[in-house]
Amino acid sequence: MPLEEIEVGDPFIFRNDTLWPYFERLRKEDPVHYSVHPEFGPYWSVTKYNDIMAVDTNHQVFSSEPSITIADPKDDFTLPMFIAMDQPKHDVQRKTISPIVSGPNLAALEPIIRERAGKILDELPVGETFDWVDKVSIELTTMTLATLFDFPWEDRRKLTRWSDVATANPNSGIVESEEQRRAELYECVDYFMRLWNERVNAEPRGDLISMLAHGESTRNMDRMEYLGNLILLIVGGNDTTRNTITGSVLALNQNPDQYDKLRANHDLIPSMVSETIRWQTPLAHMRRNAKADIELGGKQIKKGDKVVMWYVSGNRDEEVIDNPNAFIIDRPNVRRHLSFGFGIHRCVGNRLAELQLKIIWEEIFRRFPKIEVMGEPRRVLSAFVKGYESLPVRLVA
Ligand code: HEM
After folding, report:
1. How far is the centre of ligand 1, averaged over its atoms, from the C-alpha of 360 (Å)?
2. Considering only CA atoms, which residue is closest to atom 1 of ligand 1?
3. Each residue of 165-187: pLDDT tens digit?
4. Distance CA 192, CA 204 (A)
5. pLDDT band, residue 238 (cuts 50/70/90)
6. Label partner for 171 (CA 20 to 30 A): which of 102, 215, 307, 378?
7. What is the mean pLDDT of residues 365-387?
8. For 283, which DSSP code?
9. Ligand 1 mean position to 350 CA, how many Å?
10. What would the pLDDT profile of 83-128 be if each residue is shown by its tens digit?
11. Residues 6+ away with beta carbon under 8 Å from 18
């Protein structure tokens, strides 16, 4: 295939898991690669670890506005959210919600998450094949998210639905049309508006909605900005961790020697979690917009160009990570990966994600010696959310 025909923004290579040779070739032959996406137009693909770092840590030149995915926002449906904002507004909004993931708050959340993880696992059928994504990954992360929002418990699966709808590809079958997608997102903001109204008139509390309703930089947001930030928190807190939980089961099954090593030494769980986050790379890319002409990897980027950082490729860069395609749960420098990004937008929830993964595996080992993968996973149709729709498994008692 001629280099200029390589188009890594194609969601089907993610669904079919055929992305790897394309990225390997780009890293070797054209690390900063120009291509034209059939729908979203021209953009640069940055595929090597150090070039990605150079972009991610240079927010003066590489702006997060107007969008952090290859797709441009639709003119008649823009959702402002702080991940897609530059300084100074980004910083103050981020600061408003960051106490939710502070050390003391995580310490308070730990026993709650552990109790729920235990309940979820205790209700699973032993010896039968079932879908791990639905019964465990979604369940645990949705419960955590409902807690962060102090969201009505019985309605919590609405959060899962809104998370899927927000990132749905038009061909994914999740929604029938763009109209349906918007209608469901409006339902989301109407629902959350009721919660806002209750909390804005009450004393400030420790949940995300109360934080937004009382925060100086967020209390005057209009409806679309409220929706945008909600989507950020719902997708950020849900899809990514969900797909890592599923990824950990898959990776350990594909690498039985690593599963044995973990079974023999549970102290390796935190390290396995980090290795899975690298190996999975739950968000395949983040995009920036060049605010000035700049050279990158020998290529001349022009002001206004779209630049896509492929974390999924940087995490397999053989010049920075030894044997990067292997899943090695006790590799040295295991937290050295790009999955949480770098710079001013680095994932605010990274410790919470790791905590949920650690707890679920500790609780799994208290109950089951082995989770067996029984068939192929179904992967999400997206070049952004890199994850699973389903994974058939069976528990060994
Ligand atoms: C394994 C799980 C997760 C992964 C891989 C992940 C990945 C990311 C990435 C790549 C970014 C952008 C980084 C950049 O542009 O440099 C980000 C930002 C963000 N994440 Fe996560 N995330 C995860 C879990 C979570 C959780 C549990 C939350 C919930 C609190 C969360 C909330 C956010 C928010 C609010 C931002 C925006 C930060 C900003 O713009 O300043 N994430 N995440």
Report:
1. 20
2. 241
3. 998 877 778 899 989 999 999 99
4. 17
5. confident
6. 307
7. 96
8. B
9. 7
10. 999 999 999 999 999 999 999 999 999 999 999 999 999 999 999 9
11. none
Per-chain mean pLDDT for the chain: 96
**CA 244 to ligand 1: nearest atom:** 1
Tokens found for residue 162:
């809104």
Q: Give the torsion sign (CA, 245, 247, 251, 253).
A: positive
194-217 burial string, b = 16+ CB within 10 Å, else e? ebbeebeeeeeeebbbbbbbbbeb
Does the pTM exceed 0.85?
Answer: yes
Question: pLDDT of 302-314, one tens digit each?
Answer: 999 999 999 999 9
Percent of the chain as helix, strand, coil, to the nearest 5: 50, 15, 35
Ligand 1 interacting residues, C-beta cut-off 6 A: 56, 82-83, 94, 101, 232-233, 236-237, 240-241, 244, 277, 282-283, 286, 339-343, 345-349, 352-353
Q: Is the peptide bond before 88 cis (omega within 30 degrees of 0)?
A: yes
381 and 174 Cβ atoms separated by less than 8 Å: no
